[in-house]
């Protein structure tokens, strides 16, 4: 008789915990907000230098601005930073440059073979047609 009471109380606790957990998950996902995407796709173009390769570039809309992030990798299998400069350019549908920023990039870890960059462009996401990420190596 004692065993049945314990097992039924454990079932009750487990059911209450499952209900509470699912409530937290449901309210937490609802609190994340809307998916802020543009109504049209923004094209991303990368231009590499003789020393650096721009890769894994992503764009997203954050607070009515365009956020761009990605990596710069060394073309040769050497460690260390890739020398040069990195430019992120937003181009409108009329072909004019809306904004161009020289951005910094850094390795996230000391032994990393690639460098990370992230930049937020203060342009209207609906007007942007193309994002160009250009790496210019030293001596170019």
Rg over alpha carbons: 24 Å
Biggest β-sheet strands, sense, barrel: 4 strands, mixed
Q: Enumerate how many helices there are, as a single number.
A: 1
Work out the strand percent. 35-45%
Q: Shape from CA axes?
A: flat
Strand tally is 7
Strand order within the widest sheet?
Answer: 1-7-4-5
Structural class: alpha+beta
Q: Kindly state the mean pLDDT as a whole number?
A: 78
Helix proportion = 10-25%
What distance lies between the first and last C-alpha atoms, to the nearest angstrom?
85 Å
Please mark out the parts with pLDDT under 50 across 5 or more consecutive residues, or reply none. 29-38
Order of helices and strands: HEEEEEEE
Write a concise keyword list for the protein shown above.
7 strands, alpha+beta, flat, 140 residues, 1 helix, three-stranded antiparallel sheet
Brief description of this entry?
Helix content is 21%, strand content 41%. It is an alpha+beta fold and 140 residues long.
Topology:
Layout: H1 2-30, E1 43-47, E2 52-62, E3 65-74, E4 85-92, E5 97-103, E6 114-121, E7 128-136
Parallel strand pairs: 1-7
Antiparallel strand pairs: 2-3, 3-6, 4-5, 4-7
Written overview of the protein:
The chain is an alpha+beta fold. The protein has 1 helix and 7 strands, in the order αβββββββ. It has one helix at 2-30; strands at residues 43-47, 52-62, 65-74, 85-92, 97-103, 114-121, 128-136. It has a 4-stranded mixed beta sheet with strand order 1-7-4-5, with no helix packed on it. It has a 3-stranded antiparallel beta sheet with strand order 2-3-6, with no helix packed on it. β2 and β3 form a beta hairpin. The longest helix is centred in the N-terminal third of the chain and has 29 residues, at 2-30. The protein is flat, with a radius of gyration of 24 Å. The relative contact order is 0.22. Mean pLDDT is 78; it is low at 29-38.
